[in-house]
Amino acid sequence: MTDTVDDVDMPYEEDSASQQEKIEALQERLDVLESQNEEMRDKLLDANAENNKYQQKLERLTHENKKLKQSPLFVATVQELTDDGVVIKQHGNNQEALTEVTDGMRDDLEPDDRVAVNNSLSVVKKLEKETDVRARVMQVDHSPDVTYEDIGGLDEQMNEVRETVELPMENPEMFSDVGIQPPSGVLLHGPPGTGKTMLAKAVANETDATFIKMAGSELVHKFIGEGAKLVRDLFEVARENEPAVLFIDEIDAIASKRTDSKTSGDAEVQRTMMQLLSEMDGFDERGEVRIIAATNRFDMLDPAILRPGRFDRLIEVPKPDAAGRELIFQIHTRDMNVADDVDFAELAAMADDASGADVKAICTEAGMFAIREDRTEITMADFRGAWQKITESSETDAGDDSLAFA
Ligand code: ATP
Fold first, then answer.
1. Which residues have a Cβ under 8 Å from the Cβ of 293 and sit 6 or more positions away?
2. Superfamily holding 74-126
3. Which range (120-129, 164-173, 241-250, 284-293) has the least confidence?
4. pLDDT surpassing 70 at residue 56
5. Domain locations in the chain?
6. Which residues line ligand 1 (CB under 6 A)?
7. Which of 230, 109, 83 is nearest to 117 (CA)?
């Protein structure tokens, strides 16, 4: 606004208006301008607030955009700290590199530390100790306490597991005499809570082998190179603990059918699976290590994992039938003070479609009914009540295959 007094259109006639009229007209004009000014000031404030809002949004989007563009981090191990920088060795490709780090980071680093590096190999952060990761993903049990007698309704599956896992461990010469290789890996597939883990534990127990369990989902890490390294570690731990039964649960997490997407996460999963396959292909050096994998998602598996010499023995572990459920009821009530009126056949018929884990849950819940009423004997009514409670809770838990908690 560059209006000068000369440009302004005066609100009176210069020649005819009296002094008083001029003052009044100017006063009136001043009032109008003041209120217009007020209005403009309000609008300016509004616009400023709006501008601030957009500014913040812009900052947020810029940040998100930066994050999306950021390439994934790679895992490396510190080799040595020199005056020129830090020597690191990348996992996966084993390439060494000299990289600079900030003084703060340098004070924190020691040889053998695991670090995350970016595309230009700058150390972005120090990672937790490898032993922590191993401990988190691997469960090592030197003497699992599950026996074949603890498993109900899976006789056929049990025989097959014994033949494919136990026999080659106990009588390897039988296979060499006949001139055949024992099956490499056994894949147990079926709904959750049907006893797959139990079967693997029982066979380890029976053969005095160390039971080593790892979940596939734990192997899929956010750092590139980590999954494949963990698979190598896993086989190393198994070899150190021979004889050992290596149980890989949720194998679908690393061995799903290839998808079309080419994200780095997928590449990482592929790499982890490749490492697993190559460890399995090196069967001769595996010695007394047997591999059992399990999945609830058989349909999702990559056929590569099912090829001969890999998981070529497939054993379906279904939900138990009525006779199986009856047996499982008997197994899980072995140490319970059960009243004479309890009819296991009737319970098995009642708990239609229940998995072994569901049956166990019913028994525990029935025991809770007795405890709540200060009784030590568990009655048929307790079991009925437990079944009702568990079916009701599973109805609110839509989408879960299992009927109840395991
Ligand atoms: P997931 O696929 O969810 O890992 P899973 O098939 O490995 O399940 P388990 O962990 O073996 O199932 O079973 C969970 C629990 O359910 C067991 O600890 C056991 O108490 C009970 N259970 C399951 N199946 C049976 C069975 N056939 N006989 C006796 N108990 C069973």
1. 185, 186, 187, 188, 247, 248, 249, 251, 311
2. Nucleic acid-binding proteins (2.40.50.140)
3. 284-293
4. yes
5. 1-69, 74-126, 135-316, 322-404
6. 151-154, 192-198, 249, 294, 296, 320, 328, 331, 356-357, 360, 406
7. 109
